[in-house]
## 1
Amino acid sequence: MDVHQLTFVNRGNCGFIGDHETNKSDIVTLIIGVILVLVSFLPIHGRFPKDILRVIAAVLCAYPSVISAFEGLKRKKVEESLLMDIAVLAGMLLGDFFEAAAVAILFRVGEMLEDYANNRSRKSIESLCSIVSDIGHRVREGGGFEIIDADDITVGMKLAVLPYELIPVDGVIYSGKGTIDTSAITGESIPRMVSEGDKLTSGTVNGSTTLFYEATAVKSQSGAERIISMVTDAAANKSRSQTTVEKFAKYYTPAVIIAAVLIAVIPSIITKDWREWIHRALVILMASCPCAVVISVPLAFLSTMGACAGNGMIIKGSNFIEALAHADTVVYDKTGTLTTDRPLVGEVTAAEGYGRERVLAVAAKCEYYSTHPLGKAIVSACGEVDMDGVTENEEIAGGGVGATLPEGKALCGCGKFMTEHGIDISAFSDAPVYVALDGKIIGTVGIINEIRKTSAETVSALRKLGITKQVMFTGDDESRAAAVSREIGLDGYKCELLPEEKLSALEELKSGGKKIIYAGDGINDAPVLAAADAGVAMGLGTRAACEAADVILTDSDLTRLADTVNQSKKTVGIMKANIAFAIIVKFVVIVLGIIGIAPVWLAVIADVGTMIICVLNAARLLKVQRIERTVTSEISA
């Protein structure tokens, strides 16, 4: 089967659908075929009218398969559909018109069920396109702006993004300050402050102010489109099982045709009973059709990739589904993976003459009315805030807030914000929040991230799924690493690691025969994500991590890791069950056919019946079964 970027797998009738989708005309044709066969059983005078009705039904329902087989032969490929076409034609030549019609109708029913399952998978994937904007606002030279198609945006074009509007392409701000919501792309829940010189990524949402920026990429090369590309490219990465099945079908189909011809010819020459042995050859031909086997593997994988993509879990290829299913070890990065992005106040430093409480109190008075997560964290850490005499509280676009206190004008914000207001911050080391009073820095407020509520839940769920070892690699110090590991119940940790040391530690685990999943989110995780059997990136913010990873959890919900492993195990289990079921049924019918016991209709059931059962079984994967929750997910909370 041929692989295509957008249409996944080009069907040779028994493979996956490419551009084909069951439409109303296909359904009408099938219904007409069924009606014609049913009418043929009415008390019509003479056999000829009945046979004509059955021949018409067979031709109508077999027509798509004949076209598919003919296209395959033009490419010098023997498609599986050719087996069905030969059986229909031979049945009509032998005068078994009902059996010929039954073969064509049942086969068409199987194709439609396959179409339905495959198209459901594609629609799940296509739903991700909601993060892509179709329009942009081009800034006119004389002032104002005009709406244009996002596909017409070029690099260097001046654009405006209005309040609460989806950003169409990547770019750099040249005028304006405000916040942007990056949650659709990065999973980061905290709005990000942006101003002149900051980068914007397509698929993110602007805040309450208008921003003016210059495009640095066209739509097809921007951040949101990368998500779509990662999913649509996924089917090109075939699993070992899928590739093996396709190679099997490539040689199996011609072999079955040759075997059927030999069974039809050689015994007929010896016994002179051509009708009987051609009939037996037809039984073998139909029962041997590998459609159920060929369909069961790619359909199971594609159903899972589509369902997972629609639930925030992008799996880049079916080979990674197998890697997830067979893994026995999970390695986690700490920051951003086991810890949440929800901020908490950490270390507070103070200038000479000011205590920790005083610095935190001034910051809380500035942030008291702020809706920003950092502001809320500072107010919460301060406890009771005395707002007597505090006036002129204001949130200043660009990264800070201000207020007038009885003792003077106070400012609270990032280093860039302080520098823009002429305040010297050189006396303090880098910090996320600086606090100033009357134009001088009085201290800094450190921000830390708390452990995700779902971390312990995920560790527990993965153990139930057969993951025997779970450890953490981090660049953080010993005390913090030990505390996190102990609280969520890990089997161990390695701390104070540089990126290259993380990679060495992972290779050491792999050398012991471990099948490893690595979960991380930063640029420094990219080498380890690539080296793991299955690399899982949290969110879509770090391009290096996303490109190196094999699986992306777009909303940064760690419990999705357990869901992905669970779904992968279900997929491999269903795939094996389908193959085993199809082979056993076909083997039994082929043996019965050789000894002359099985009729053609039983061969049809062995082929089409097993195909339908396998398709329906694989279609169960179109819905992701979430793991049983023991703790309320922080995402839903």
## 2
Amino acid sequence: MTKLCIFAGTSEGKQLAESLAGRGVQMTVCVATEYGEVSFGQLQDCTVLAGRMPREEIEAMLRREGFAAVVDATHPYAEHITESICSAAEATGTPYIRLLRESTASEEDGVFVADTAECIAFLKTTEGNVLLTTGSKTLPQYCEDAALKERIYARVLPLEDSIRICGECGLSADRILAVKGPFSRDMNAAMLKMVKAEWMVTKDTGSAGGYEDKIAAAKECGAKAVIIGRPVEKEDGFSLEETVSLLEEKLQLAPKRKKVVMVGIGMGTEGTLTGEGKKAIEEADVLLGAQRMLEGVKPAHSRKFTAIAATDIADVIERENGPFFAVLYSGDTGFYSGAKSLSETLKDRGIDADVTILPGIGSLSYFCAKLGRTWQDVKVVSLHGRDTDLVRCVKENPAVFTLLGGQTGAQDALNRLKDVGLGGLKAYVGQKLGYEAEAIVSGTVEELAAGAYNPLSVLLVENPAWKSYPVTHGIADDAFTRADVPMTKQEIRSVTLSKLRLTKGAVVWDIGSGSGSVSVECALQASEGHVYAIEKEKDAVDLTCANMEKFCICNMSVIEGEAPDALADLPAPTHAFIGGSTGNLKEILAVLLEKNQHVRIVANAVTMETAAELSEAAKEFAYSDICCVNVSRGRKMGRYHLMTAQNPVYIVTMQN
């Protein structure tokens, strides 16, 4: 295996090693401290050596190992080690590559000085506290001047050597800020304010070194920056991308496997973004997501693409260079997000990538925390681009949380609940959760239905009477809207539904729906499925639609037409009820079996002729059952109750 040596003193050195890991090259990475060794973790085909190496040791290692090249990714200001590496490489004939950190400095940033000595000379001409962000190595030089030492606050790494140097320089504990970066603009500003600094000393460390955040924080706090300029002789070299390309060509490396991280960004603000999510966004080569999400994150090094659909995101991942893609999803990646769809799309496309999914703080947990309640008893649904039976969910559960869609999603949902008699329930609407304009309102459903809400809203409704909701079929006949249209009566309907043995996800055909009573009951039982009510008579079609609206049924479609012709374009049924066949029983059964050989069929007959036809048809099925149901209903006559017999109904069940 080809050998490569990397001297890594910057984040770019680590990124280089990560880009080459597992691609057919054995890397030896040299770092100055144990802290640097730990930061590399466990990279494939990578050995990390910790400790400062004099030139002679570097030359001996290069001769012994026979590296194909040595990459100098040390800090721009580490002049001595760069000279040693370059000299040792020349002496051993090892190809030398300098990896540069790109400068982002401009003349407006502050006062530029050539080196540490010039910086000290300048600071002596000023007054006010100084925040020194250049580490502990040059600290003794600043502290040689007693007056300047009394003004200095040193920000150093929390390492034993750094703290020791601070102590040897005579800095008291309250003047030592022992912390590890990276530091955001806000963190830099907090430190400047804490020490009441009027001056901040930094180096031109580039974006990866947090230079821009330091300069922005200084301007925000009214402090002046003193920037130690880079040594001119070290400006020849290559960027990270150029170095990777150069090594790929020189060492004939295997293609880099793409890395895709799907990041749940919480409510879209930094405060609700997890540490893992933030790290992925900062390190990604390419960011993808909705425009409003991309606007909320600002890593300067990333390329951004607006893409929402899984196919569009996959197109970018397949097309673009760069091994690390971060895909942004609002809230939590496991809560009505596109993460699952993207994973399946990448697999279907044959895109070879390491996929990681990072959860975020979802609107459900965030909202319930704001309300001071738990959410283990909450039924979770979505009305965002989905047909969900919100009314039934609210009736059946102690609390329902729903994502909303459209400009008037909250108003529409609340009015729908109010119109079916649920206006007295307690409800909460959360608007623009996590943003500065966040607003939460509460009241009864009826009270809130009169309001206007932001399109970016969620709704939670509580129902203390949820346990009283009926779970069995058998709706009373007079609960339906009636007309001069045949109706399957309550008792027959109950036996019929029992024979159907519906599942939650059943796809049901109700052929000859009449009043729609069977369709409505089927839709209530098959809550995750769909019912197709087929009816040829216009009056019956209208009545079925009226009862569908009356019971707020969402998972039902009414088809006007005569079977079997009206059945051709419908999806395959899992269950079918034949309430009326108009002499087309054989043709209807043929279509049902063509769509699904194992469909469960229940048919009712009130005439002997139809019963005989069904009895003959049942012989062709692997399983059949025929029963005759005789129902008598009580009626009052004076002070007596008499039973009045109803027409007997034959119920035939058939299935292969």
## 3
Amino acid sequence: MNDQTVPRKFKQTVEKYGDRAALRKKEHGLWHDISWNDYYRMAKQVGSALMSMGLEKGDCVSIIGDNCPEWVIIDMGIQCAGGVSVGVYSTNAWPQVEYVVQDSESVFFFVENEEQLDKWFSFRDNVPKLKKVIVWDLEGLKHFKDPMVMAYDELLELGCEVAEKEPKLFENRTATVGPDDLSVLIYTSGTTGPPKGAMLTHMNVIWTAGAITLDNPVFDYDEVMSFLPLCHIFERLFSVFVHISQGYTVNFIESLDTVTDNMREISPTVGYAVPRIWEKYLSAVYIRMSDATWFKKLVFGVALKIGKYRAGRKMNFQSVPLPMELAYTLAHFIVFRKLKERLGFDRMRVAYSGAAPISPDVLLFFQSIGVNLIEGYGQTEGTGVTCVSKVDRIKFGTVGPPLPGVEVKIAEDGEIL
């Protein structure tokens, strides 16, 4: 089993960190930890159960639901069992869900809840290759019975039984997974026609997970907050592939309505979001300041001016005069420190913006208040990242140099190769 596969990298990290927290979720007002050992145990149960029900190496399995530990545990179980994991947007209407399940020829389908299960009902007769639909949140489905539908807890029990009867089944299958085998299918709309499934191998995802941390290191004591769709390569990189490579903790939001509250609670050390999210945070700051007293507005305005001057100098790779550096230290202590605490950015060492262009003004604002927001560029087919700025060497309006090991050139017609 090659090191450049998801199962191998996952197992290495589990052996290294054991009982340390891998995943964290909030239930009934309290945060609960899932250790690396428990993560592996449940992924093994998922994979073992699927194999016992007929999952062959290279088969596709679809998943639809919001971000939660179950999503990534299922994802890992599928990949370790030699399957190909296929994420589906939870907001998709049933015809779009049908398209992905049908196009990928998925043999199993994991759905979060009753709402997602209803989508399957609309096209169940059109996907004869499906062997089973597995539901992980049974609220509203307590007395529901259907021979095609199975509860996630039942699947884990089956996996436990299979693992006891055939203790080497799971490990033997993971050992057959090679770097050139498919890891995931990421469906992306592209520019024309229906969505296409980008075929990413184990080598693709593991190599990229390592490459993006070379210039901007990530550590095992870091914490991230998972809230972008997991079927998108941007979120999948940080919540799955970089996660199993670096061993940090992934915190899952309660819901999309609690993102800002959870951000303050978690205070992640590594942040990432699409430009629209960073713009919303910026707007929220200015809206809040519009209701402030004239004195607070004055102090904030002066502090921001100092911050922008300093950020502008650093952007142009110029030294910052000592008096201005001292003024910034004071501005940070009086204004920016408290502002970052209110936003949940006080521990954020590096933050990424990707998936669409971001305004240089937004980057300048966050750099001015002491948040190292940097921009990256890539495409799903390239495993999400081709270029990314370095924290200590940022030029606004650019996406930074190519990742170490990546070559980029511009064709005569302007196409990026």
## 4
Amino acid sequence: MQTTFPRLMLEHAKARPDAPALREKEYGIWQSLSWSGLASLVRELACGLSQAGLQRGQHIVVVAENRPRLYATMLAAQSVGAVPVPLYQDAAANEYIFPINNAEITMAVVEDQEQVDKMIELRESCPQLARIWYDDPRGLRKYDAPGLQSLDALVEAGRAYNVQHPQFFDEQVALGQPGDVASMFFTSGTTGNPKGVVHTHFTLIDRAQAGASFDKLGPNEEVLAYLPPAWIGQNIFSYAQWLVCGYVVNCPESASTVTIDLKEIGPTYYFAPPRVFEGLLTTVMIRMEDAGRLKKWLFQRCMELARRVGPALMDGKPVGTTDRLLYALGNLCIYGPLRNSLGMSRVRVAYTAGEAIGPDLFSFYRSIGINLKQLYGSTETAVFVCLQPDHEAKADTVGVPIAGVEIRLAENGEILVKSPGLLKEYYKNPAATAEVLTADGWYHTGDAGFLDAGGHLKIIDRAKDVGRLKGGAHDGAMFAPKYVENKLKFFPYIKEAVAFGDQRERACAFVNIDMEAVGNWAEKRNLPYAGYTDLAQKPEVYELVRDCIEKVNADLAADALLAGSQIHRFLILHKELDADDGELTRTRKVKRGFIGERYQILVDALYGGKTSQFIETQVSFDDGRKGAVSAELKIMDVKVFPALRKAA
């Protein structure tokens, strides 16, 4: 599609001026912004930004939750040829320094007082940051920082300029070309400074269109935008595909109201990383713990039936008449109300991506009638590389290459991709660009995997993370830490896991318990506790987690390739892994190398045969304060199983 995002927006405004483009929940009431209203707002913002000095090719930072006026700001910047750079709104101020200086950013549009405070704080390190506009004025009435203004003031200035120069906006949009840079997304920087991934209008629009065609998306879809806009997954689903398809994007009131908003909107097209689906299932299981005996019995019987026949029904496979009738009864009593409770009654297509999803978790959603599928892609590929067709969703694959995509495997098993959606470059980093992009247009994904007999791509792990056991009964066996971690995280009681084993005789693990799920479990058993650290070290909790790990071990034993990856020993960490402490990325991916170094004393204790280890750790609180958490951590052995079958 040879066009740009501003042109797509203007086409929708012309064809369907009164149709809703965006909705925002404010004070408990959904407010709609039509396509014509959006076009007017974008025109005024574009004129205002240009008047303020934003020039073609320059970068402008946008830091916020999903908000209609912030979406309009990104469109406005693109309309005058500038490049919006969304950053994570929950990042600490010092995490913005490198992106802002790297991209030579002089202007920022932010959501509220919290973000304004961060921008003012980092001005000493980023002296070129001259202009800051904010959307939400609460708490900012007496701020007098230089260059600080409300977004309303920017709109007013743009409106006045538009009256004087009515052709300016249209002329600027007409200058835009599909090959112009549209956005820049910074990677999480797990092994050094973040890298700015440069995408053009063409790359983003082409992949958005390919994904939309694959699932027959149109203007009647409803989407809930609740994940960070700085994550390209959210950006593709609620910005690029929104402008390609013209559907409605709904912005929740706040992070705490997302579950309620999900039920009110009833999206038809839904996207979430596995952790969100894990959290929803955990909530369901906690509620069932509180249910009466009859209701719990009915739920268990219906779920047994659903697990047995639900996925087959979803895949269009033949199912016996009796099972079909029983499932219809279960749908009336359990599955339908459950989908409604999850806010997924109207979901036609649901996707998960970002990391692998546990097979049991995947099957659960499909078994109750939710068309959950997996996709594969990355920031560098504009997300869409492989998608699962309807009736071909498998828990252990990520789908087939979609239109325009070619896949081949390197000799070491790394997946290489050729696609119209590949990044233009890493900004100001030609060496890193050359590492991932070959001269003939192949992108090195860094993932290890293979295509199965049906043409579906199967991901094993990150190529650099796939290791080998050394010595012992499984000498030379493959060790895939992410695969093991994802299997552990299926259990509602385990929130995060970090597996170790490369170049060692056996695998061991750190575990984070899920405070809500385990807390509820403890309260049912009258088990008192004083916070996370205390609860995590309860002997009863260790037994609970050991039971989960032994079930994973039994499952791993059924696969001769991964039987050596069974966990032999584990400990429960004294604190939750936190992005503010550098242990997770902002998309909640575990930084295994950093964690291994930070907690080296615990790794040594696991492999040294100790039964406990004292540790004290510095932590960062939400308000910026520093503190310390200490505890004597128990270390427990786990039962392992012999491999049940040999590799073919």
